[in-house]
Write a structure and sequence with these properties.
The protein has about 350 residues and is α/β, with parallel strands linked by helices. About 35% of the residues lie in helices and about 20% in strands. About 45% of the residues are buried. The structure holds iron/sulfur cluster. Iron/sulfur cluster binds next to loops.
């Protein structure tokens, strides 16, 4: 895995410890109805050979955070502030032309639905070759050879033939593998996977997760896994960030999250996972209410209208993300001891998935 070939991202260098660090990231979009505050002060980091899982409902800011890392939210109506430090370079300040040499080559992304992300009118080989030639000065023949190897590596059978298939000629699992091959052919340092298995059945989902885990181990790629599925987090993540209303509200190791979760929102997500080893419930638990409007956020804690533990202070004061213990950050006004007691209780009643990896 190349780690020092970043030719263009040379300005605004600072000392950092992780490969990718996000500090106080704010992203908002001006709309006719008002400003949409999609990300509010996100603090995240991921290092080589490890996986950061970002979990939360739709509209929690997971995907906007990822797209901003890729430089794909630089719309005229967008306001972006904070820092995205990649190997010492602040990507927020990096001009578009320099960002192009990072995107795809150093930081790659796989999307939820490969059918809408792959161009339907071009063969998958052509699309992978184009991605290689956009970043490297190699002949078409060399790029095609590498594309075939990449398809082979992600488990596509007969890649010499499949390379000349159009996206619609492949199954959902094969298309997702082709997307992953395209993302990995340039051996990126960071791979962002945005709900990569949502559109797939469980067997293919397990194969894709295995593939991502193997690639992380083999190439020491840093993985950012975005999902609404805590089962995927339990399978793959080393660190977990729980996002709600554009904020990171709990951040800790996978083991800790599935042993002593400390946030009422995380408890709600955990309760909503059906378990195969428990008696079949009449109805699945769900979190009451809906995610808030990102234009008109509730006062205080953004989760307060849905929180069964809401207190007066929650209506007035937004909780800060603070250290509960080393390596465990939580944004909640509940007393620490009370949070831990309730979290442990939930895990003992509902079971932990941390041993299912
Ligand atoms: Fe619930 Fe209050 Fe904690 Fe928010 S701060 S999660 S409303 S207890």
């Amino acid at each position: 895995m190349p780690s020092s070939t970043h030719a263009s991202a040379t300005s605004d260098s600072v000392q950092v410890s992780s490969l990718l660090e996000i500090h106080d990231l704010h992203v908002s979009f001006r709309t006719r109805d008002g400003d949409v505050h999609a990300v509010e002060g996100a603090e995240l980091s991921v290092d080589r050979g490890s996986t950061l899982g970002i979990v939360g409902e739709s509209g929690s800011g997971k995907s906007v955070t990822a797209l901003t890392v890729m430089g794909l939210t630089r719309f005229p109506n967008a306001t972006i502030s904070g820092e995205i430090i990649f190997e010492g370079t602040d990507l927020v300040k990096l001009p578009n032309n320099q960002m192009q040499s990072v995107r795809g080559k150093r930081i790659a992304m796989i999307f939820q639905d490969p059918l809408s992300s792959l161009h339907p009118l071009f063969k998958i080989g052509w699309q992978i070759v184009e991605a290689i030639q956009a970043h490297e000065d190699v002949s078409k023949a060399t790029a095609r050879k590498r594309a075939i190897e990449a398809l082979r590596e992600v488990g596509i059978p007969s890649p010499e033939k499949r390379i000349d298939s159009y996206p619609h000629e492949l199954s959902g699992g094969m298309r997702q593998r082709a997307m992953i091959a395209m993302a990995l052919v340039l051996k990126p340092d960071v791979l962002i996977a945005d709900e990569p298995t949502t559109a797939l059945d469980v067997t293919v989902q397990a194969q894709i997760l295995d593939l991502i885990r193997r690639l992380k181990d083999e190439y020491q790629t840093a993985i950012v896994m975005i999902t609404h599925d805590l089962g995927v987090i339990a399978e793959l993540a080393d660190e977990v960030a729980v996002m709600y209303a554009g904020r990171v509200m709990e951040r800790t190791s996978r083991e800790r999250l599935f042993t002593v979760p400390e946030l009422p929102y995380t408890w709600g997500l955990m309760r909503s996972i059906p378990r195969l080893d428990a008696p079949r419930p009449g109805r699945l638990d769900s979190i009451a209410g809906l995610p808030p409007s990102l234009i008109h956020l509730p006062s205080g804690c953004p989760f307060h209208p849905r929180c069964p533990y809401v207190m007066d202070v929650c209506l007035k004061v937004e909780p800060k993300l603070e250290q509960s213990e080393p390596g465990h950050l939580v944004a909640c006004h509940l007393q620490v001891e009370e949070r831990r007691r309730l979290g442990r209780e939930l895990v003992s009643q509902h079971g932990s998935r941390s041993d299912e990896r």
